Every structure is written in structure tokens, then in C-alpha cells.
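Researcher: Predict the fold of Fucosyltransferase.
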Amino acid sequence: MKRFKQNLDGDHLSTHLDLDTRNALRDPDRKSGLSSMKVMGIFVAGLIVFSVLFSVNVVLRDPPSDAVFETSKARVLEVEHRKDSEDQFSESLEVPKDKLVRGLLADGFDEGSCVSRYQSASYRKELPYRPSSYLISKLRSYEALHKRCGPYTESYNKTIEQLKSGYHTGSLDCNYVVWISFSGLGNRILTLASAFLYAVLTNRVLLVDPGVDMVDLFCEPFPEVSWFLPMDFPLKNQFDSLDQKSPHCYGKMLKKNSNFTNSDGSVMPSFVYLHLAHDYDDQDKLFFCSQDQTFLQKIPWLLMKTDNYFVPSLFLIPSFEQELNNLFPRKETAFHFLGRYLFHPTNVVWGLITRYYQAYLEKADERIGIQIRVFDTGTGPFQHVFDQILACAVKENLLPEINRQDFIVSPLGTPKSKAVLMTSLSSGYFEKLRDMYWEHPTATGEVIGIYQPSHEEYQQTEKLMHNRKAWTEMYLLSLTDVLVTSSWSTFGYVAQSLGGLTPWILYKPENRTAPDPPCQRAMSMEPCFHAPPFYDCKAKTGVDTGKLVPHVRHCEDMSWGLKLVDS
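Model: C-alpha cells for Fucosyltransferase follow.
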């Protein structure tokens, strides 16, 4: 047996077989064949050889499925895609990105219909704060309400019939706030978030006027039932004409001392129009008083037109104060979480975002966003604006100085790379900065790449592709590591708040002269409410609403505006 076992090893086997064969030929008088032990050895060896040949044949004829190789490749690519020196992506497959943003988003959507909803977490840094459990619970409750009361549900159809009658005579299961599409894209994003928060606070269902492009730009945020207002909504043909002179405008009704209802509970209007645009007057602004909110709660349909991010003034309404504190213990996260919950780019826009990011920004050690909005009249680019941008970026150590004496600066080790994403209606500022860092080495040896996705020359609010590019660029700016924004710009507000970025704000130039200092760090990442009320509802007198509570302060870029901060 020992001999048999040894002969199963490789070359010993063939040597043994050859020897036995020669002996048999020399000695024909030997027993026919070989001994039983030798016969058994040859038989087993033959089985082993056959087994090996059969296995090789099967593998060649039927190789492992592509899925095995593709899965292996996908894992390698996923690891490489997620690696980033600034921890932009997760380093470990064992701890995947939280696609639900720590419970903020609902699970169960068809991922293919809106890829960005769950994929966007892979492009963002983890924030140091999380949504409150109360906010998460409130969002799940709102989703249930929207499912029960959304378009074409039984409750919706019932309220529509009463809306058509023109009067409201009894209680209804569902009340609504209709957001009317108005103004530029940055304003629309900010005001839609404001309207949604108001809906949550007042237990209303938010319905969104799709306008000309909202369906093309944004995915549905709520499960199962659409947030878009149906095309057959009875008042839709009145949207364009609604203003402060409209009979159902709340401010005008107050001026006329309209007796909305009698003490016996008789008829009330079935809808009220809320004019909260920048030109609203003192009566319109009474919307921000608790007693007026008590009355508005009785109206089943509120139609809202606004170009203001009015969330800061909601924090000043006493009846909302405790609820808002529970929703947002950290005040400056209000728009960030509302925006991350509501605004998911459609697949066509997400393609624009991801292709640009992967081509120009992903591999950089650091990404710097510079958002430029110029309010000066005349043809740019303006030298004083460029000087201000450069002064801010260099002073705050966002970009390095250039070396005008040497042709080459060789850093020790691998040079750090910075990708600068610029957005502007003009290409002039991008070209100047790109040429400067191309024609001269940096003093630090850092490698600087300058990129600008588009330059539309002027704002084209009603053009579909223009707004796709605008939404793409806001979102790309929100994916940067540090951000410089322009004063008064809602475009910049959206980018900074979505990205959880506290920006450096460029001061608004005066007399075509670069300000000194050129910029300052914002107090918080929250947007600014440009046209807040200055009114004490209890005292019925004027008051500085930026000094009533520590978490509502005047804005850095607009002295009369209001923004949320954490004291």
C-alpha cells in the first residue's frame, strides 16, 4: 500500500506504469495481467486522470457566468469610486453609505425612476449632525396624510366639489396649501421648501403647480401619490392673474374688513390667496401673526404665491415655536434637511450632474466652488469683480498665490490638486482665472484646475435646458468642499444649504470698486429671507424682528434680511 500511495504522485506514477509494462513483455510466463494490487492501482490512477480531464473540459465548455466576473469587477470599481482624500466617499464596503440619510428619506421607492434619491449619498460627505427623531416621525406622518388626501383620492375629490361651490360650510378631512410656480429657479426651490414646512406645521397637504418645468427637474418626493397639482384643478386658469388686487387675496380682504364668517358659523370662503411676494404690504404680512393663523386654519384651500424664503419668520410665530424647536434642535439645518428630503434631480438632470462630477471634480484632492452673480448693469466681465473673487480666495487660503518669477515650482512629494468649479452667466471670470493658473505656477506647487459647466450670458427662466443647467450647477456647487457665494443670490443659498456648507460671502460691490475686505464667512448655512415683516403682532407696532430671539438674526449680505443661526 505504501508503494501504491507513493505512485499516485505525479511523475512516479508514469515511471511505475512503464516499468511494469516492460517486465510483462520480457516475461510472458508471468501471471496474466498484474497482481490484483497493481490492477487496482492502475484502475484508480485512470479514474484520477479521467476526473481531471473531465473537469477541464467542463470549465472550457461552460465557463463561470459573466455575473461572477461582473460582480467582482463592480466591487473593485465601487471601492475605487468611493475613495477620496477628503472622505467624500466611504472607504469601506462593510459600512455602506446611508442612502436614507439617517432615516430622513422613506424607503420603498422604485430606485430606477429616480436614481438620485438614493445614489446622491455616495457623492456627499457625512454631516456632523443628524435629523431629529421628531422630524423623521413628522415626515412619515405627513407621507401618510399625503397618501390619504393627495390628488384624486376620495378626500381630495370631496374638497374639490366644495371648492367649486365657492363656499366652505363644514369640516373636511383634508386641508391644502397650493404652491404656485413663480420667479426664478433658485427662488422656487427656496419657497417650495418654505411652503412644505408651513404645510407640515398646519397639517395641510402640499400640492405643487408644475409650471413649465418642475416635472422635468424634480422627482416625486412622497411615496405612491403625486405632489403635483392635477391639470384639471378648478382654479388653475386663475393662477397668473392672482395678485394683491384679487378678491380672495387675504391682505385685501383684511383691508375691506371682510367678515369671513358669522358667529353662527355660516359660510366662509372655500379658498384664500396668500400674496407673500417681495412687494407684499402690511396687511399681507399679517400672515405671520398667530391670530391670523388661527383664522386661516379654518380655510380648506390656501393658494400661495411667493418669491421669499420665509422660514425664519415662521420661527417667530408663537404658535409654531415649540413645534419648530422639536423639528430642528439645530436651527441652521432647517433648509438642509428640507432640501435633502424634497429635491431630488430627475434622471436627465442627474446624468448631467454625475457625468460632470466624474469627469472634472471627482479625482481632485479638494473641490472649491465659486458662485458669481453680478447685479451691475453693463457688459461684463468686470475687472473689479474678478479682483474681488481672487482677493477673497487667496486671503482665505482657498487658492494659492501664483509665482510670477519662476517657470516651474517643484513641490516635495506629490502635489495637491484642487478643482475649482465656477458658475456664472459669463465665461469671462472663468477664463481669467484659468489662464492665470495655466500661465504661472503656484507658489505652493499645488495643481489648480478651473472648470465652468455653462455660460448662458443672461437668465432665461422659462427655458427648459437653461433651468436644467441651473439646477445641475446648484447641485454641483453643493458637492464641493468649500464654497464662495455672491451676496443676495438665491442660487448660492440653495447650493450652500443643500451641501451643508457655511460659505464665504462676497460683499456686494459699490461704485464698481472691489470691497475691502472682499468677503466674510457666513454665520450659518441657512438662506436669507430678503423681505421679512417688521411688526409686533401683539403690540401692533413696528419692531426689529432680527433682535427678538437669538436664533433669528439679520443676514450678512442684506442688512434688513433675516436668517436662522445657532447662537
